[in-house]
Amino acid sequence: MTDTASRKAQVRIRPKEEFNFFQDQRVRSVFYQLLTAGIVGWLTWYLITNTAHNLEVRGMNTGFSFINATAGFDTDFKLIDYTPGKGTYGDIFIIGALNTLLVSFLAIIISTVLGFFVGVMRLSNNWLVDKVALAYVEIFRNVPLLIQIVFWYIGVFSLLPVVKKSLDLSFGSGYVTLNNRGLYMATPIPGDLMWMTLVALVVAIVGVIMFRRRAHARQEQSGEQIKTFLPSLAAIILLPGIVFVATGMPLEWNVPALTGFNFTGGTSVPPAFLALLVALTIYHAAHIAESVRAGILSVNRGQTDAAMAIGLKPGRVMGLVIIPQAMPAIVPPMISNWMNTVKNSSLAIAIGYSDVVSLFMQTALNQAGYAVEMVGMTMAFYMFISLTISFFLNIYNKRVQLVER
Question: Structure pTM?
Fold first, then answer.
């Protein structure tokens, strides 16, 4: 007993640690972080004050008072109401930012879908399908994006028929027409009871989500597969359709009409927007296709064999087994691709599309003269959008990583 007590006492007795301010690891880490933050802050302050002083010496305007100043020019494409001579440079910045976000959003969605499709085609056992997908990837991925944008603008959309010989893409109804001045589409005008149809659509979507979740939970418990595609599609179409008809179809269309030398009414999209959207979509879809192919190839072949062995069809094997396991390898390069799509939209300046660079950092800058502020606002806009995309996709990336484990 005495030996045991003495041993416990020896174990409990530990040498007293002496605190050394200059040698403590925690103190050093905090000190160096504060030192780094101070140096960065001082450099930022020095650059700002030095730039402001140099601009003042040269008699150049500084500050952000120009945002509320009146802008005296118009743009051919805008998503908000704006009147030259009444609108401000702040409105011009918003118009350019919205135009950039619109074309970038559409390009991201379409290029992602097309990229997944082409990436799966690259792994097809059919020789022709594989080679066509390979040719698509190698051609559009290796031609500079700026050249593709100029090609689509000058070599395709500028050579479309004139206004009087417009191409009717809506089978003669006149709802969608295309010519060398752009794409003209009918604009929907909702009636007073249209909100009921929208509510029915939301209810149908919520019901479909709940139905699919219950079907998935039942499959996890019993292994029984419940077909959800056709019932979901029927619910989304039929329920809002019934409400729409029952309320007297409260929706009218403002159809573009040819008056004089151009169409009036409806919604028009300039050729520059179409050329930029097509070029961004095709170019970035080629890069996404290679990321998808690499991600699928990273999944062990045994996963495919095991799924086929239990009777799954090739399409369900790809959708339920291979793609979910490949997503951790696909998402990281896709984050960079999406950010590059937004940043590459600035090349629209080559064809005159009214994005934030062309409209705000070029035209507005030439009139107002606040070069540093306008360039800084444009840089901050692109940085904010890129960081936002990275933030949300990194959250999704962590989620798929957890699912895989």
Answer: 0.81
